[in-house]
Design a protein that fits this description.
Two copies of one chain form a homodimer. By secondary structure, chain A is an alpha/beta fold. Chain A is about 35% helix and about 25% strand. The first copy, chain A, has a domain at about 5-35 and about 365-410: Carboxypeptidase-like, regulatory domain (Immunoglobulin-like, Sandwich). In chain A, helix 5 (about 135-150) packs across helix 6 (about 175-185) and helix 9 packs parallel to helix 10 (about 295-315). Chain A is globular and about 75 Å long.
């Protein structure tokens, strides 16, 4: 078990009194505590869940994807599903609600917390917005939020409400409906509208603002939003590091600056590749088109080392509540980069084994203890859900920051 | 007179019926309209007004400063007076209120609109704040605003409420009380507190946010402040161009970006020197210390050309309502730069003559007209105050955007 001080904020101590059905203490018995779920969100983008849940691909492809999903389930407890408007509803009025509901349900049944990404973004937005007036675009965008957040309530209760607002009104690569309305509303104005609708549609949801911009721009935007009364539940920070690992110094500096708000921080889209680095002079990562971007053994080792350091720094920071690896597999990864933790053939890279070890071993608690004469046993462990096993009996318990003594009938 | 279309937004047309004391039309008489004051604020920093008004310097020095002030009065209708806290109140509880009131009164009596600069800033702030807790600093800062804005009400009704907020919480050149509290409150938070107190203390005042940062940072800050309900009356933009004139392209780009808010824009601190340029690689202008920075004939011509272009672009823009030349004279100019429009010996540079021509001639209206049979005459002119002279009689009229017909008894 790691140094308790280092991870103290991720752990708690709980005293349990075990009694039998008649109310008598279960004294001097061996008890195993096995962590089944983390409170911390170890997430991953796993868009293949849509095909797997809907079983709408050929059998051999389905088997391949099911194997991929099995590997995913062995490590993560969080999944990001795609809600890019232009793909979710390419034809107005025909959203892929059922397909995505099936995927979200499939994941939920496997104890995975699902996040929807994103509800409002200028990229991959619905092309048919371009034929509308700005007032109509805004109404369509709000109606989209109301519809989708409501349709997925209970299956998806975490949303990237609005994505990349810093650049949104000055995005000039191509005309799109969302940039148009963001110019009208201003940055804080559009955030306000989208969050208001998201909150109305699912008051208990965790609603995120998300951006790749980690400069002072994003700090001031968040500051403005909070002062304008917008109820942001968590600050989303993208970290696509195709041009090289940020390193400890930048990472800690970013954490320090975004901690001032006292809000939970989610690293929503993390990429560290196992290939050569993208040249540093490329400003928009989308501009880099490389025909074949191989994963190599040397770079796979580097990727694992960087992921270990980065995850450790983030897991240590008290405000970070989620880290999402963006691409699970190199297959279909953004920009064709070897950004996955498994290769195109589903074979695990060192980073996969490393993350599995961190999440399921180093940062999990699996201990055996013994009750005292009064049936009392104390567990200290990482926050989350546990199976308590005593003889042939098993019960579920939760370790959260509400410590104290619980009495369990076993 | 310049092209009427170009300056149409600065002008209006007014029809006046002149009658004599008995109510009879003053028919077929020559009438002179002489502009005495501009609605547009052509301002200038003129800290020497404090010595002139208080007459607390030796006689020869006083005569020299009076000559300087005369030159100032021949061109400008606005003045910026210094309220740097560390100089205004170097010893806690002993502010230089009387001296500054005398200066403001002296200027007001000469038909000059006075602005106070600044109420809250991390630079040249009171050093004795450093001994206080953050709560005490905030209270002292708010009390300072309440006291000074109240003490000067009627004399000074325009304030740079808070200066350079973008950098304020990350300013790291030296410790100071204002940076400390800005870290606590956040940028939008400190703006909110200062504006709230300023507004309470003088509800009718014109309250500005002011910054040298013209990047997207400042745009997002303003956006956040407005969405947080802060009543900013005008956006203040500094333009200290010691490293070279921005040029038309940047100037128009800045105007375009800061126009989105629909608020009046004040160019609050404009510098174009008549000397060599400061090297472009200097980030904080304060870091450039040059023992002697001469004004040369060649660069004085350049200064005049640049001022002509810049003032023309700004005067043409419908949202710009004020331009302030930061240093009137090279004497005591910031950074020792030849930033004035008069030299250290009070001799006018070409820029002085140019500005006088623009303000008092090209952008002023002085016309002679004749009343018709009904005593009616129409004037089209730049917005502001006028003397109407008919024979040996003189009355004052105002040309503002509330057009229509006025009847004047002469």
């Amino acid at each position: 078990m790691p140094n308790a001080n280092q991870w103290a904020h991720r752990m708690t101590k709980k005293t349990i009194k075990l009694v039998d059905a008649a109310g008598n203490p279960v004294a001097r018995k061996e008890v195993a505590f096995r962590q089944t779920h983390h409170q911390f969100l170890f997430g991953c983008g796993i868009f293949d869940a849509v095909e797997v849940a809907n079983r709408n691909v050929p059998a051999d492809r389905l088997a391949f994807l099911e194997r991929k999903l099995d590997l995913f389930l062995e490590v993560f407890n969080g999944a990001t599903l795609p809600f890019y408007w232009g793909r979710f509803e390419p034809e107005k009025g025909k959203p892929q609600t059922k397909e995505l509901q099936a995927a979200a349900r499939w994941l939920k049944e496997r104890n995975i917390t699902v996040k929807g990404h994103p509800l409002c973004w200028h990229t991959v937005t619905a092309p048919w917005l371009l034929e509308m007036s700005n007032e109509e675009i805004l109404n369509a965008q709000l109606a989209r939020i109301e519809r989708d957040v409501s349709d997925f309530k209970g299956l998806i209760d975490t949303w990237d409400v609005i994505n990349e607002v810093v650049i949104m009104p000055i995005f000039d690569k191509y005309d799109n409906g969302i940039t148009r309305i963001s110019k009208d509303l201003g940055r804080v104005g559009i955030v306000k509208e989208m969050f208001k609708k998201g909150r109305e549609s699912n008051p208990g949801a965790t609603l995120l603002l998300n951006d790749f911009n980690t400069s002072i721009n994003y700090e001031i935007l968040i500051d403005g939003c909070l002062n304008a009364g917008i109820s942001i539940d968590a600050i989303g920070i993208q970290s696509h590091q195709h041009q090289g690992y940020w390193g400890r110094e930048k990472l800690e500096e970013v954490l320090e600056r975004f901690s001032h708000f006292g809000l939970p921080i989610h690293f929503t889209e993390n990429t560290l590749t196992s290939g050569h680095l993208m040249p540093a002079d490329i400003e928009d990562l989308n501009d880099y088109q490389f025909p074949e971007w191989p994963s190599t053994p040397e770079f796979e080792e580097r990727q694992a080392r960087e992921i270990e350091e980065m995850y450790s720094i983030l897991f240590r920071h008290p405000l970070v509540e989620a880290i999402t690896t963006w691409n699970f597999s190199d297959e279909g990864a953004w920009l064709g980069a070897p950004a996955g933790i498994v290769r195109v053939d589903n074979s695990p890279k060192p980073a996969y084994e490393l993350l599995k070890k961190l999440i399921k071993q180093d940062w999990s608690t699996n201990v055996i203890s013994t009750t005292d004469d009064n049936g009392i046993v104390t567990i200290e462990g990482f926050l989350g859900d546990y199976d308590l096993v005593c003889g042939d009996r098993k019960v579920s318990i939760k370790l959260d920051k509400n410590a104290g003594t619980a009495q369990l009938v076993i």
